[in-house]
Structure formats: C-alpha cells, structure tokens
Design brief:
- The structure is a homodimer of 151-residue chains.
- Helices cover 68% and strands 3% of the residues of chain A.
- The first copy, chain A, is an all-alpha fold and 151 residues long.
- Chain A has one domain: Arc Repressor Mutant, subunit A (Orthogonal Bundle), CATH 1.10.10.10.
- Chain A has a two-stranded antiparallel sheet with strand order 1-2.
- In chain A, β1 and β2 form a beta hairpin.
- The interface between A and B is large, with 55 and 56 residues.
- The complex binds manganese (II) ion (4 copies).
- The structure holds a DNA duplex (30 and 30 nucleotides).
Chain lengths: 151, 151
DNA sequence: GCGAAATGTTAGACAAGGCTAACAATCTGC
DNA sequence: GCAGATTGTTAGCCTTGTCTAACATTTCGC
C-alpha cells in the first residue's frame, strides 16, 4: 500500500525520515518543558514593573490557578535559579530570570504584533500569542518581525 | 510606580483585566492537555495511510520516545475513546479518533504551508508547525489560510 | 493595638508523561 | 518448526503541575 506504483495521491506524500521527525517532536517536548517557567518569569517581570513587586496572590489571579500551585511552581523556579524568594515576602528575579523574562517579553511582543498585523482581534491575538510564543524558532521570529515592519 | 502621572512609557502599558488574562492562560493550559493526543492520532492516521497499519514501534520511532511510553499513552487514548487496541495487535482509530486526526492534519497543513509561504525553510517549518498547530484559534487559522492563498 | 481579613505555606492526593528493567509474544530465516 | 531477533507489555520509579484542606503570618480597619 505504501509504495504502490499506482499511488499518485498528491499530499500526504511526506514520509520524511522518521529520525528527523523524532527530532522535531523532541524539540517540541523540550519547548513544552519551559513554557510554564517562561510564563511565570514574564509575568513576574511585568508585575514588578507595573506594581513595584510581584506577589504570589497576583500571580495566582493572573495565571488562573490556586495559591498552592503558585507556591510550588515558585519553589521550582527558585531551585532552577530564576527567582529568589523568602517566606511571606515578594518575589525577585535573579539575573538569569531577568534575562529570560526579557527574552520572553520580546518574543511575546513580536508574536502578538504579528497576529495583530494579520488582522486578528486583540483578545484572540493575546490568547494565541500566549501559546504560540513558546514554539517559535529564532528564524520564524525574524520573519514575523519583518512582516510587522513592512505592514 | 504603576500610576505615576509622569509615566509616558509606550509599551508595557498593558495591565489589562487580570481575569481576561487568567482566561487566556486557562485556554492555553487546556490546549496543552490535548497536544499529545493530537500528535498521536495525527501520526496514527498517517501511518495507517502510508504503511497500512499503525504499530507501536513505528510510533515510538517517530515520536522519539520509548516503547513503554507509547504503550501507556495508547492506553490513555483508548480510555478516552480515540483508538481501539488489542494486545500485540496494531492500533485503530475510532470514529472520534479519525475526526480528530482529520482536524489536526488540516491544522498542521495550514500552519506548515503558512510558515513556508512566509519564507521559512522546510525543516524549521516542520518543527515550528508541530508546536504551533496546537495553539492556533479558528480565526487565526483562517487568516493563515487566506495568506497562503494570496501568496 | 487588636481582631478580622487577606495572604502565604504546608501536607498530601492525583493524573500525565517520561524512563528502565524484566518478561512475554510474535515473527523470521534457515 | 525452532532459535534468535523483534516487538510489545507490565511493573515500578520519578518529576511536573494541578487541586483541597488545614494552618500560619501579615496587613488593615477601626
Ligand atoms: Mn505563554
Ligand atoms: Mn507570554
Ligand atoms: Mn504537534
Ligand atoms: Mn502535527
């Protein structure tokens, strides 16, 4: 069935190397593992900028999760060197955390502006950008930015 | 700091409703929960089409994971009514699974062609599409399709 | 400055999604 | 038709990310 010489079907021809394919999926899984950290540090940076500090309660509200979920996640971020925290005090970004936040904000901005340029409404653009931003390669980001510029 | 009347900074003005924001994140989390199932049914449909059947070993190779991981995931898909399976036999899609596969394939195609239209190389396009496809709303997909058509 | 409200933490449950080790079944080549 | 290779399953471990319940601390209003 797969190499029937009568096979002339147009699409779905793509049986490209299984290994390349596996690499693609492994890359996607790697990106997935960073999504939450990226969303958190981006939000924390934003809260610090707009409110002067980042408190768990504000993170919980904006992320739409419960306080214990935030607490546990923050512990992981601290373990991974992205933030520092002390009991009952607000959250600070480490140098590394600030760097990641900056990069994420940059990506978020470009993806968002790109979607808006395409003609998407603001609310949908925000929602889609929030998911897409973690799966955009550097090359793609450049293409998005170029598109935004010339439109 | 946040409502200093002297604040004239251009961007980062976006302190839009925390609740809207939470909804966006909840939507993204919901999409994340379906990603794996989507990738599996899409791949299974493809294997059935190109090889006549979908076997765990081929899924494992292409997904880049081990056989036990595939087995456990397939059990979940079966539990969720997307596939049927019998011990040591190949995998079949249910009606529901076929419907989801079709939809995923459609989304994948459009996102991929869109990225290619933008000028991205084939390999990067495949990788990015594999991640982005799960986070594209219906509206965005339509805009992507329209862009592909007129380019 | 005290009591109530708000905020934060801890403990513990649970599902998903990855892995390795061990074993079982099937298939293949001779 | 059997031995060895391939494929598939099971058991069990681990981390992540979510939750609820209970408790601790801090902040606020008066
Ligand atoms: Mn995001
Ligand atoms: Mn973001
Ligand atoms: Mn995918
Ligand atoms: Mn896909």
């Amino acid at each position: 069935m797969h190499d029937d010489p009568h096979e002339v079907l147009p699409a779905a021809s793509d049986d490209r190397s299984p290994d390349l394919r596996a690499e693609a999926f492994q890359g996607v899984r790697a990106a997935r593992r960073n999504e939450l950290a990226e969303d958190y540090v981006e939000l924390i940076a934003e809260l610090i900028h707009s409110h002067g500090e980042a408190r768990p309660v504000d993170i919980a509200t904006r992320m739409g999760v419960t306080a214990p979920t935030v607490a546990k996640t923050l512990d992981r971020l601290a373990r991974d060197g992205l933030i520092t925290r002390a009991k009952y005090r607000s959250i600070f970004l480490t140098e590394q955390g600030r760097a990641l936040a900056k990069e994420c904000r940059h990506r978020h901005e470009i993806v968002l502006r790109f979607l808006l340029s395409l003609g998407l409404d603001a609310e949908t653009a925000e929602r889609d950008a929030e998911g897409i931003e973690h799966h955009v390669s550097e090359r793609t980001l450049e293409l998005f930015a170029a598109f935004v510029s010339r439109n």
